[in-house]
Design brief:
This protein is α+β, with helices and mostly antiparallel strands and 97 residues long. The protein contains 2 helices and 3 strands, in the order βββαα. It starts with 26 loop residues before the first strand and ends in a 5-residue tail after the last helix. The structure holds zinc ion (ZN).
């Protein structure tokens, strides 16, 4: 795969950009590699456009934080929405006190 001359960190997420080889604006999502979640390739000529960052994990919401306080949770707060949901579930089902 050719090394991109485009700095993927400065490319806006939408629109994905113009293909430097053929000028096309059509892109397809390709495979990721190593730390890269996925890649964006030109749909027309297949040139690599840029890497796609991993979607951000939704963080614990204020509502979850307040609810956990209401449930009497005194330990460290979970970082993500998913682990917050899991913790609240454990309180509600009596797995935790
Ligand atoms: Zn192209």
């Amino acid at each position: 795969m050719p090394v991109s001359t485009i700095d993927c960190k400065t490319q806006p997420l939408v629109p994905p950009g113009t293909c430097p080889r053929c000028g096309s604006h059509s892109h397809v999502i390709g495979e990721g590699r190593g730390p890269h979640y996925a890649s964006i390739l030109c749909q027309n000529c297949g040139r690599f456009i840029r890497w796609v960052p991993k979607p951000q994990t939704p963080l614990l919401t204020a509502v979850q934080r307040a609810y956990l306080a209401e449930l009497g949770h005194a330990g460290p707060l979970p970082q993500t929405q998913a682990s917050g949901t899991q913790l609240i579930f454990e309180y509600l089902t009596g797995e935790r006190w």
